[in-house]
Amino acid sequence: MAKSDRRTFLKRSAAVVPAIVLGPEAAASLHARPQSEVPPAASTTLDAGLLGAVGAAVLPTAELGTNGVSQAVRGFQGWLDGYEPVAELNHGYFSAEIRYTPADPGPRWQAQLEALDAEARKRHEAGFTELGPADRRTLLAHHIGREGASGLPGPARADHVAVGLLAWFYATSEANDLCYRADIRKQECRSLEDVGRPPEPIP
Q1: In a domain, 74, yes or no
Q2: At residue 17, what are phi and psi to the nearest 5 degrees?
Q3: For residue 19, is pLDDT > 50?
Q4: Is residue 186 a part of any domain in this protein?
């Protein structure tokens, strides 16, 4: 994939958030492992229809297709289902600082989805899921403000559900492979036989 193609892909996919560079806390938030007592996992189930409409507005639909967007939205909900609030994070070498994951963002995100739907009905006399992509993005822009202007946060630290979805997606191997059009699988270990081989291109 040429540099110009990658730039176009990244710009188009972040229609609501002006920058998609992951913040330094993204990987830690995604792969947090408790080191002591395990807190209860988050259990908030977001409205599937509204979350899917948000995903269709902010994710790269041209590259993912309808099925890919749906898969990404389900993956985000699956991540939220297994999220452990206030879990102790693995700290780096030579660091004594103990850090914890944020509180469960699910209830706040569900309230935001409901607020988007309510505002859509007042502004357009139609639910958020019934709006076209442009109207959805305009409405989302009012709610997101400048969050993500200097890079996406870790998913659980995102103030808005749309930013959380984007942050989660762009930290996945699938997004990395899609960007480079190659089967890189950055979060998987390659066998010794494959170490010297370049990743296979994705058609």
Answers
A1: yes
A2: -100, 125
A3: no
A4: no
**Distance between terminal CA atoms of the chain?**
10
Query: CA-CA distance, 150 to 126, in Å (whole number)?
Result: 33
Cβ atoms of residues 16 and 136 within 8 Å: no
Instruction: Specify if 198 maps to a domain.
Output: no
Long-range contact pairs involving 60-65 (C-beta distance under 8 Å, separation at least 24): 60/9, 60/12, 60/13, 60/178, 61/133, 62/12, 63/9, 63/13, 63/178, 64/178
Quote the pLDDT of residue 35.
42
Q: Total domain count for the chain?
A: 1
The residue type found at 89 is L
Residue 82: give the domain boundaries: 3-33+43-171
Convert the pLDDT of each residue in 113-170 to its tens digit: 999 999 999 999 999 999 999 999 999 998 888 776 678 889 999 999 999 999 999 9
Instruction: Read off the pLDDT of each residue in 27-31 and give the average, rounded to a whole number.
Output: 45
